[in-house]
């Protein structure tokens, strides 16, 4: 079974804090390409996630989660 990552919790947190993605990028000092990868639910380095967590004063589980993929989705 494959597992994907979801950053939906991060986007909801930004909405709750009235922050834009650009605000996060500047505050956490991450590149625009990294922000694009996050927006596509692609993997980023742990050091990037650590910067985001430090900036927002949250734990890693507050910004992302692992989602198991069903076997039939993996084959399509």
pLDDT under 50 segments (min length 5)?
A: none
Shape: globular
Structural class, from secondary structure content?
Answer: mainly alpha
What is the end-to-end distance?
14 Å
Per the CATH scheme, the topology name is 434 Repressor (Amino-terminal Domain)
Give the averaged pLDDT, no decimals: 92
Indicate the proportion of strand residues.
5-15%
Radius of gyration: 13 Å
Q: Largest sheet, if any? A: 2 strands, antiparallel
Side-by-side strand order of the widest sheet: 1-2
CATH class call: Mainly Alpha
Quickly count the helices.
Answer: 5
Give the proportion of residues in helices.
40-55%
The total strand number stands at 2
Please characterize this protein's 3D structure.
The protein contains 5 helices and 2 strands; from the N terminus they run E-H-H-H-H-E-H. It is mainly alpha-helical. It has a single domain, classed as 434 Repressor (Amino-terminal Domain). It has a two-stranded antiparallel ribbon. The radius of gyration is 13 Å and the shape is globular.
């Amino acid at each position: 079974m494959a597992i994907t990552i979801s950053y939906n919790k991060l986007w909801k947190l930004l909405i709750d804090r009235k922050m834009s993605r650009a605000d996060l990028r500047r505050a956490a000092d991450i590149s625009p390409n990294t922000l694009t990868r996050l927006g596509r639910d692609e993997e980023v380095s742990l050091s990037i996630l650590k910067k985001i967590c430090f900036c927002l004063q949250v734990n890693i589980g507050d910004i992302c989660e692992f989602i198991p993929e069903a076997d039939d989705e993996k084959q399509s």
